[in-house]
Amino acid sequence: MITTPTPTMLRALPAEHRQRLMRVAREVSFPEGTRLFEEGGRADRFWIIRSGTVELDMRVPGRRAAVVERLRHNELVGWSWLFSPHVWHLGAVATTPVRAYEFDATAVRLMCQNDPALGNTVTPWVGDVLAHRLRSARTCLLDLYAPSGAGRDD
């Protein structure tokens, strides 16, 4: 599992764009063990973690779900909301009590569509997170199926 931090909204977006997004956010909390979403489900929202830990996992035939990454404070939970067909490619579960900001995906996509400058900062940020998650998933799969240590870039 990759442990390098994913690009955060704080680092990726200018203050003006962060503030605009935060105007449509709502505070939510999830008890430990809550499934935020399932792989294959409709991606209609996303979260920024305020406190707690969320694990991203993926189904592996004949095995328990494989944990791809652990997300913590200020990290984005969910990227599938931005890209068609808006279906979750991973699953997510709160492994501790979680407090987060929740965003309605449709509202944010419309904001980005109506303000190209906002869209031109949100899309690369989420794209960077996506690339990071794909590397994590690749490493996880190599750890599961390849000869010992083959998934490490060390």
TrEMBL record:
One of its GO terms (cellular component) is cytosol. GO terms for molecular function: DNA-binding transcription factor activity. InterPro entries: cNMP-bd_dom (IPR000595), cNMP-bd_dom_sf (IPR018490), Env_Response_Regulators (IPR050397), RmlC-like_jellyroll (IPR014710). Residues 9-78 form the Cyclic nucleotide-binding domain. It holds the Pfam family cNMP_binding. Gene3D superfamilies: Jelly Rolls. This is Cyclic nucleotide-binding domain-containing protein. The lineage of its organism: Bacteria, Bacillati, Actinomycetota, Actinomycetes, Kitasatosporales.
